[in-house]
Amino acid sequence: MDDLLRRTIGEAVEIETVIAGGLWNTLVDPTNLENAVLNLAINARDAMDARGHLTIEAGNAFLDDSYADLHAEVVAGQYVQVSVTDTGTGMTPEVMAQAFEPFFSTKPQGKGTGLGLSMVFGFVKQSGGHVKVYSEPGQGTTIKLYLPRSMQAEDAPAEIDAGPIVGGNETILVVEDDEAVRETVVAVLDELGYRVLKAPDAQSALVVIESGVAVDLLFTDVVMPGPLKSTELVRKTKERIPQLSVLFTSGYTENSIVHGGRLDEGVNLLSKPYSRDALARKIRQVFTRDGKIPRLEMPSVEPEKAPRDALVVLICEDDAIIRMDTADMVQELGHTVIEAETGLKALQIASTREIDVLLTDVGLPDISGGELARKVRAQRPEVAIVFATGHDTVAGIDEVPGASVLRKPYQFAQIQKVLADV
Ligand SMILES: Nc1ncnc2c1ncn2[C@@H]1O[C@H](COP(=O)(O)OP(=O)(O)OP(=O)(O)O)[C@@H](O)[C@H]1O
Ligand SMILES: [Mg+2]
After folding, report:
1. For residue 112, how far is its CA from the centre of ligand 2 (angstroms)?
2. 130: domain range?
3. Rounded distance from Cα 173 to ligand 1 centre (Å)
4. DSSP β-bridge partners for residue 44
5. Residue whose CB lies within 8 A of the most ligand 1 atoms, among 8, 98, 117, for a mutation test
């Protein structure tokens, strides 16, 4: 948040951050936490009349029984503490008593809504935490947020580049009602070396389970037609196979397994649409979390016998199915694939990584494939451009010298030819 804070707080306030070593984890919504810190920092700025010293600290804290006795709503225990301290005017006891009330503000009309602190309070309460204020007129203010410690491992942000893709030879049951998605997933998992079973709904999946096959992981859509819910399926399957690993997938952010914007403890979710790489990584991650180490003879899908003329191909396509299909085919040809689902993401990748070929859809949700190609070329004139399109021509293709056209729908042979040509 460095940049954002600097710009918001202004040059005349010194900002210091003190982060304790061995910091514990907490499970909260990152955006809400950022908003809370930002709100506290803005209040601090206003209280200092834009000059002074702002300190943001993070550390581990233990709220003991005697503290809990004094604060009715506090549960004694371990917390991660985030505090914001300023050298501003401070608050009188009267102001402090009302500061967290919605719409309470001492700021001039039109300057403050009085909602800042009440939002901070709401977020902390919702996260099972506690807020404490220390303030005296003329002495500045410290606001401490206590967020409950979580024993879960840190959730690594999904990165495009998170290490090699590995498969395994466990058995995975794929439950998905959309046939196209199901077949693609089955093909991807199969190629990764897994034994794959499939079912179009929860009821049929249960039949597979009840036949007695040893399933290691259930990969199921959250929302499916039919009388049996996916969560019911999981419960019934776990009765038969207690060590079962489960990965849900869903296109909905709000659904039966997500409560208040966060997942129930121990629930794994892969949001749709997902890339082939994301699927492969997530599956391995779930196995690892469940303490299942990949078996030795596990195949690696890194192209070991990569031909000498292997290319790095950036595939930009917003349709997840087409993208995964294309990625598979390009990989099969021994090339390295990087996937992007929007033009801007592709542009960002192209500006940070060496690529040989940009294979892009023309109609993208943000910038057009043509614009993307021109921007990539401006940075890297040597990159070969391939437009994938359902039309005969691409508007503005003249501005991208040497660009090729891959006519949709395309198959292995067409991709092979166009990549051989470039
Ligand atoms: N760091 C601080 N130092 C002194 N007074 C503060 C501080 N933080 C909050 N206050 C007091 O608490 C009041 C309520 O704060 P709150 O953030 O809820 O609303 P606001 O800052 O007035 O408006 P908004 O945040 O919606 O712009 C403030 O108007 C101010 O009087
Ligand atoms: Mg405020």
Report:
1. 7
2. 2-150
3. 54
4. none
5. 117
